Amino acid sequence: MALTIALVILLGLFLLNVPIAFALIISSVVYVLFIDSYSAEILVQRMIGGLESVPLLAIIFFITAGILMNYTGITSRMLRFAQLITKRLPGSLAQVNVVLSTLMGGLSGSNIADAAMQSKILVPEMEKRGYTRAFSTALTAGTALITPIIPPGIALILYGFIGNVSIGSMFLAGIIPGFVLCISFMIYVHFYAKKHKLETENTEKTSLREFLLTLKDALLALLLPVIIIGGIRFGIFSATEAGAIAIFYALFLGLIVYREMKLSQLISALVETTHTAASVLIIIAAGSAFAWVLTLEQVPQRMATVMAEYVSSPITFFLVVLIFLLIIGMFIEGNVSIIILTPLFMPMLNQYGIDPVHFGIFFIVCISIGTLTPPLGTVMYTTCSITKTKIEDFVVASLPFLILLIVVALLVAFIPGLSMFLPINF
User: How far is CA 234 from CA 58, 106, 178, 237, 314, in A?
Assistant: First the structure.
């Protein structure tokens, strides 16, 4: 009874647009008030306990590194590199959008930051070249979903922490699916540009000197994901230490190599980091409290029992989870879904013989899709608010990208090698 009331209140608060963290805290408090076994103090302990973990520092460090990257001149260098390698492709600027998301995702780890940055830089320019605002915005939002999948995606770290899964393995597992998603978007853009006759003829050749100069500028930034993944995989440092190294690397590039970061920009970056980190941490704390409520009610065990009774094969399990996560993703922000749902799914994986690393990539792809859909899609609202695009126009324009994302999610589910090849062999 208490859980039912708490869930109804949680849903009501979501519909009233109450911030997710506060909705989770309020519903958890209501639950405790309806039972006699625990006092409200236990919730505070659970919230604090949810933050008392060294691996969580990795999230803060990578958030800091990602924000610093935007102040070091790396973004402009990566943009020039993306333009160089796509300039002769149909729909070259739209292709730049896809490639830049992939490159910057390997640096920032935040899809919101990626979507916001490209909405400001690329969408206005795409409109000038004949793309509709709705398509440009939808493409920007869709390609931003590559970011959580490839290292050092914050979602990968959070899933590894909550599910007690190797973060290094999660980083490796996300590389191939991330590039599959990138290539899928590029193929769609190719045919879209051909159909609508957008940037279809560009015979300008790139000189070897121009290529080498552009590559030189971008190379130091491109080395960061290699350093992070290689260092973690070979046991040189942990994921948390890798985050700290990423910060020093960003500062090294911005202050010493590129010399484009000023003291005022450094202060602005740290203030922005504080705001972003605080919003992430309060969600983790609130999610930890609500996850404790679900655990207390034995929801994971009950779900495992029901799934075992009605779902007999891994294929059916993946399909059921896909549908469930697509619906949940419409109402709950991605990181919150990871915090709440990971403990629910973990007990089920053994009975279907599914590796937690394999499931983790599938899980993150699925919940990321929800950030593009009403009523609470965070990436959708971020891009639409910046580009002044109507939600209804965005929804129509984003349908092809939603289909692509679902297809990639199914490929990840049914071809384990996409996510498991690198963790197994390296």
Answer: 18, 19, 22, 8, 32
- The ranges assigned to domains in the chain are 1-39, 40-425
Using the predicted structure, report yes or no on whether residue 13 has a pLDDT greater than 80. yes
- Selected residue with higher pLDDT from 247 and 208: 247
What token pair was written down for 51?
Answer: 């933050």
- HSE-CB at 369 with a 13 A cutoff on CA atoms is 25
| Type of residue found at 58 | A
Chain segment 124-149, per-residue pLDDT in tens: 989 998 999 999 999 999 999 998 89
Question: Are residues 387 and 117 in contact, defined by beta-carbon separation less than 8 angstroms?
Answer: no
